[in-house]
Amino acid sequence: MLPEFTLSRPADIDEVLRELNADVVPYAGGTELLLAMKMGLLVPSGLVDLKRIPALREISASESAIVIGAGATHDEVARHELIQAHAPLLVQVEQNVGNARVRSQGTIGGNLCFAEPRSDLLALLAAFDATVLLRSVRGDRTLAMAEFVLGPYWTDRAEDELLVSVAIPRPCPTGAYVKLQVTERPTVGVAAVRTAAGRCRVVVGSVTEVPLVVAGASWDDIDADGIVAQVEPVSDIAGSAEYKKHITGVYVRRAVALARDGAV
Amino acid sequence: MSSATGSAAGSTSEIATTVNGAAYRGSVANRTTLAAYLRDELGLKGTKVSCELQVCGVCSVLVDGRPVSSCTYLAADIDGRTVETVEGLATGERMHELQRAFVRNFALQCGFCTPGFLMMSKALLERNPDPTEDEIREYLDGNICRCTGYQPIIAAVLEAAAELRGVGVD
Ligand SMILES: Cc1cc2nc3c(=O)[nH]c(=O)nc-3n(C[C@H](O)[C@H](O)[C@H](O)COP(=O)(O)OP(=O)(O)OC[C@H]3O[C@@H](n4cnc5c(N)ncnc54)[C@H](O)[C@@H]3O)c2cc1C
Q1: Is residue A70 in contact with ligand 1, taking CB distance under 6 Å?
Q2: CATH fold for the domain made of B97-165
Q3: B3/A100 CB distance under 8 A
Q4: Could you say which of 3.10.20.30, 3.50.50.60, 3.40.50.2000, 3.90.940.10 is the CATH number of the domain covering B11-88?
Q5: How does A7-17 read in b/e, with b if 16+ C-beta sit within 10 Å?
Q6: A106: Cβ below 6 Å to ligand 1?
Q7: What CA–CA distances, in Å, run from A22 to A37, A76, A196, B154?
Q8: Which residues of chain B fall short of a pLDDT of 50?
Q9: Among A116, A155, A166, B21, which one is least packed by beta carbons within 10 Å?
Q10: CB-CB under 8 Å, A38 with B52
């Protein structure tokens, strides 16, 4: 059973910013927030619904970046023509988040702000060199993914800040993303992309507390064993630490092999 | 201040909604889930609740045509929106093509997961009237059935899809 709370439905971003504080929090798809509230892990006194703010769901492209509104759902991102045209790897990843209900309820912003380590988007967007735009009544801040995601369930977002959008620099890198997912959340997810500058970048997510980024001039520079030595998984229902280390190596090699062949 | 419709200083919200074609208006506690609203306020018990983690799929309903887990969705959020549940599938005495295909294919035994499978299948066919078997498996992989082994469900959805496209069987 959910605890009691107030609920407001502002019509624009400025209204949201006036309401946010430590106790009154943004509420998007609720796929994480409502669960955490049911379990008593989060007990905000008020929720500010972001779903009725069209500006927060917009997806647009400029010369230099693809900009995705924080309130866009996984399904909306996957089906958007700009994303399909410029970031096919993101389409593929969004189509495989959770299940069809999580994709139609859950938002990209909620995924990033909750910072559950077992997230496909934390890893992929780090591989894309994406930045996040945070806004409060005090002003705007733009952060790189590594500056934003500080640890499990921990971001640099202040309590009065709203994540407005995510920007992916153009041209968006191509490559591959592979994951092992036996429970609801990924156990390990690996992105391997070639950046616009021609660098080879591998990002390991879900198995680590925050995404691990490794780069080199060529795919031969990516040392799978070296990456395995760096990850420190915990044993849980999805597998022992030893097993997770093993599959991390397997998935790094797979992602690199696919990216080498030029997959999306 | 916030927009008139939803703004509530207290712990309730005013809603005006359409469920299975019928209009409802009233006040709901903010903490009421859509599943509880449908079952306890409207008496629509076809929608089931089980895992409450958005994993099993028995609580699936459609809001503005999109599938949601009604166990983890606020009733307050259906304000101004349209809800479809399993009770809305049939037209009078005539069952929906999906329901008839489920019966023909023995796509249910105990029936507990069936409303969820039917609503997810409806959402799928509305966006993709001619899905492949793989696409059906993919879309329904967030719904759990412990009786059928899934094969009859896939067969039923394929058959209903064909029928709805006018290339039907029976
Ligand atoms: C069954 C299941 C399977 C899943 N599988 C996957 C998976 O395979 N891969 C994956 O990556 N993820 C997975 N997820 C996680 C899913 O992606 C997230 O649940 C979803 O995207 C979160 O978005 P939301 O809109 O529901 O966030 P909410 O639950 O509404 O919010 C989450 C948190 O973020 C805050 N917040 C939300 N929006 C903003 C904003 N714009 N600015 C500031 N703060 C904000 C909220 O205050 C809250 O603390 C799964 C979840 C479930 C339940």
Answers
A1: yes
A2: DNA polymerase; domain 1 (1.10.150)
A3: no
A4: 3.10.20.30
A5: bbbbbebebbb
A6: yes
A7: 15, 29, 40, 47
A8: 1-8, 170
A9: B21
A10: yes
